[in-house]
Write a structure and sequence with these properties.
The protein has 424 residues and is an all-alpha fold. It has three domains: 109 residues, no CATH class; 174 residues, Intergrase catalytic core (hpI Integrase, Chain A, Orthogonal Bundle); 114 residues. Helix content is 64%, strand content 3%. It contains 17 helices and two strands. Strands 1-2 form a two-stranded antiparallel ribbon. Strand 1 and strand 2 form a beta hairpin. Helix 7 packs antiparallel against helix 8, helix 7 crosses helix 11 and helix 8 packs antiparallel against helix 10. The longest helix is centred in the C-terminal third of the chain and has 65 residues. The radius of gyration is 38 Å and the shape is elongated. It starts with a helix and ends with a helix.
Length: 424
């Protein structure tokens, strides 16, 4: 068999991974002062036991490239490469050897396998997806909604075919299983009602000569670079601040799994939905029915289209009832105040008549009058304070109700126009 680097690189589907492996192989060969073909021939020779060689000598020779890779890794770190980058540089030569059935096994605890968790990815939230959705066209909205529902890797997402969507007539959520390429496990996903509605509008716009849901100009599907550029365009258009972070398609997968934890369905169910390997012991307890229920719970936290909830209508109705009750109370207080005023006038007339009585009687009456007037004054003060409180409360609540009702009407009208526009 001819040992060829080109044959190996041609077998790598992901262009980013291919580029990374090509650079890593080149760096290693420059450091080792050998061509890739010479490295492969040396590896082949190391794994062939010689006639006059004992087992220990053979095993030490077979482990040569493990030690060479560790030296290469150490060299990269001294050159200023970061831990993760240095590790990735070693993957090219290791995967090349593995491709020709000559794997290089790295010992347990080796620094070559060490990685450092980074935080360069943008912490995508559903609020950001909603902002991008508002400025997106139909195709872009399908991508955003489908990515939010499925949480797939980009390599699996871009390969979705139109024929995979044969169950759109079913009641949402619609089952959507995908065999993932990297881990070769099934992603038991579901499509929400908002995604199925968009797909029904989007599918008739596609040409019949391309099998893929997101076709390129030719016969193939879109590339991962194209999709990540699209997300960058939507981020800029939606004026989302990344603060030095990087938003890529993988951020949807991270959002999906973190929301699985926050929503209470659990990380295991989240992994099962988006096609990430889980222990077989956990796999037994997650049936399709239970996964569907968990997806419904998950979507309560990552729904793109916000609708007016029944609870909102109840709150508005409660506010309206409260205002009506306050108005009734104000009218009642007004009636009481008018009655007291009339009684006070009657009392004044009675006092005038009583002044005709003797002096001592008048003194007693005057004292009673003062006490009575003081009580009336205090009562009127309390009533005035109550009227002011009720009036202020009414002034605060009425604008809130009017503004909320106006906003709801505008949102409903805007959504109606938007759906009419998309349908046309």
């Amino acid at each position: 068999m001819e040992l060829s680097v080109k044959e190996y690189l041609d077998s790598v589907a992901n262009p980013n991974t291919k580029k990374s492996y090509r650079i890593g192989i080149k760096k290693f060969c420059e450091w080792f002062y050998k061509s890739p073909r010479e490295v492969l021939e040396m590896r082949k020779g190391d794994l062939t036991q010689r006639e006059d060689e004992d087992l220990i000598e053979y095993r030490n020779r077979a482990a040569r490239f493990e030690k060479e890779i560790e030296k290469f890794h150490s060299h990269l770190l001294k050159q200023g490469y970061k831990t993760n980058t240095a590790r990735n540089m070693t993957l090219g030569i290791r995967q090349l050897s593995r491709f020709y059935q000559m794997p290089i096994r790295i010992r347990a605890g080796s620094k070559v396998s060490k990685t450092v968790k980074t935080s360069r990815s943008f912490p995508l939230r559903i609020e950001h997806v909603r902002k991008m959705f508002e400025v997106a066209d139909l195709r872009e909205r399908v991508i955003l909604s489908l990515a939010t529902d499925l949480g797939l890797r980009i390599s699996d997402f871009i390969k979705i075919k139109k024929g995979d969507l044969s169950l759109l007539d079913q009641e949402p959520p619609v089952m959507f299983d995908v065999m993932t390429g990297k881990e070769e496990v099934v992603a038991h996903g579901f499509l929400s009602s908002e995604t199925t509605e968009l797909l029904r509008l989007y599918l008739p716009t596609l040409k019949k000569d391309n099998l893929y849901l997101f076709p390129s100009n030719g016969k193939r599907h879109i590339s991962d670079e194209w999709l990540n550029r699209l997300l960058k365009k939507l981020v800029d258009k939606a004026q989302i601040r990344l603060n030095g972070k990087s938003l890529t398609f993988h951020c949807f997968r991270k959002m999906f799994l973190s929301t699985a934890i926050d929503s209470g369905i659990g990380l295991t169910a989240g992994k099962k939905l988006c096609g990430k390997a889980i222990p077989k012991s956990d796999d037994t307890y997650l049936t399709t029915v239970r996964l569907g229920e968990k997806f419904i719970q998950l979507k309560k936290f990552i729904t793109i289209k916000q609708t007016v909830q029944p609870e909102t209508h109840e709150i508005v109705e409660q506010l309206r009832t409260a205002v009506t009750k306050l108005q009734e109370d104000v009218n009642a207080y007004k009636t009481v105040a008018e009655t007291i005023t009339e009684k006070n006038q009657d009392f004044e007339e009675q006092i005038i008549e009583m002044r005709k009585l003797d002096h001592e009687t008048l003194k007693v009456i005057e004292k009673l009058k003062q006490v009575y007037q003081q009580g009336i004054k205090e009562l009127e003060t309390e009533l005035e304070n109550e009227r002011m409180r009720v009036s202020n409360l009414s002034k605060m609540i009425k604008p809130l109700i009017k503004e909320r009702m106006r906003t709801l009407a505008q949102e409903v009208e805007a959504k109606k126009k938007q759906l009419q526009k998309e349908a046309s």
